[in-house]
Amino acid sequence: MPRRTGPRARAAGVRPDPYRVWLSEIMLQQTTVAAVKSYFTAFTERWPTVTAPASARDEDVMAAWAGLGYYARARNLLKCARVVAGDYGGQFPQDHATLLTLPGVGRYTAAAVAAIAFDDPQVVVDGNVERVMARLHDEHTPLPQAKPLLTDYAAALTPPTRPGDYAQAVMDLGATICTPKRPACGLCPRRAPCAAWAAGTMAELPKKAPKKRKPTRHGIAYLARRVDGAWLLERRPDKGLLGGMLGWPGSDWGEDPAEAPPIRAEWRALGEEARHTFTHFHLRLTVKTALVPMERAPDRGDFIEAPDFSPADLPTVMRKAFDLAQGALEQAALGWSA
DNA sequence: TAGACGTGGGG
DNA sequence: TCCCCAAGTCT
Description:
Layout: H1 2-5, H2 18-28, H3 33-46, H4 51-54, H5 58-65, H6 72-87, H7 96-99, H8 107-118, H9 127-136, H10 147-157, H11 163-176, H12 195-199, E1 216-226, E2 231-235, E3 246-247, E4 268-269, E5 274-277, E6 282-292, E7 302-304, H13 316-333
Parallel strand pairs: 1-6
Antiparallel strand pairs: 2-3, 2-7, 4-6, 5-6
The chain binds a DNA duplex through residues 3, 25-36, 67-73, 76, 103-109, 126-129, 171, 174-175, 180-181, 211-214, 240-243, 275-280, 282, 315-317.
């Protein structure tokens, strides 16, 4: 993965594979290197070139993305791979403006791919770069208002040569030394010209608009296990939260959700709720389980045979519900509860 | 354009 | 146990 191996891992002048650069930048959006690493390895081993995910089944790619979050990235990854495979002969466009037209590729990613994969000196501005620029210039204007100014600062520093190495270097600096909290200024190669260091304000920059509190929503998830071990699951619609992902059929998520069992059964609620926090709300999920006979047909969802089901294919909130149910089953089997 | 959109780790 | 935070894009 380019960002982790770093510029020094490559011989000067050798351009990294645009597909791998694009894939890693998509995965790294709002996500740490540590979280991305195993996913990047799994993706590139299974789908080594952009034509591979382009011809993959949606469900396989969504399952491989499960747990990484922001699932619109995976849906757009599929769209983008198919555009590149279909409209560009399997070769990523090199032009920044054309990159920007690809699904899931915004200003940051287009600039990063152009700079890192194609040696084009585009101005790469992510959260790390914003922080580094705010500190170098002791800029106290809060984000996102300060973004244009910080981009100007970044542009003034972007070199005409080796822009990819430069971009990765600044982002690495932000990730490892010029960190959000307790920056390691003693190790910083740009301490001398840093205005925030001179002013002693580095730890409070960049300023940001205050965050809003998250409301708590409630919901019910229904985990039906057929006597042969199959599980009742449902593919979520492409739009919206967890779009395109597999999940347990459930109620709406809100103040006081109504029952919405997907199949007739004797439902029993677990003693403990599954708790999960999304970007903009907390969720407390009541988990209900039932054992259903072979011949009974569900009103919603489809039974997936036990060998075809892996909880790793589920988004985290759904996997938490599964883990709770499993734990309850094991406790019951061991006679720990009635 | 502000809000929607995940998750895991640190305090 | 929470609360807060972090490597964007789309609508």
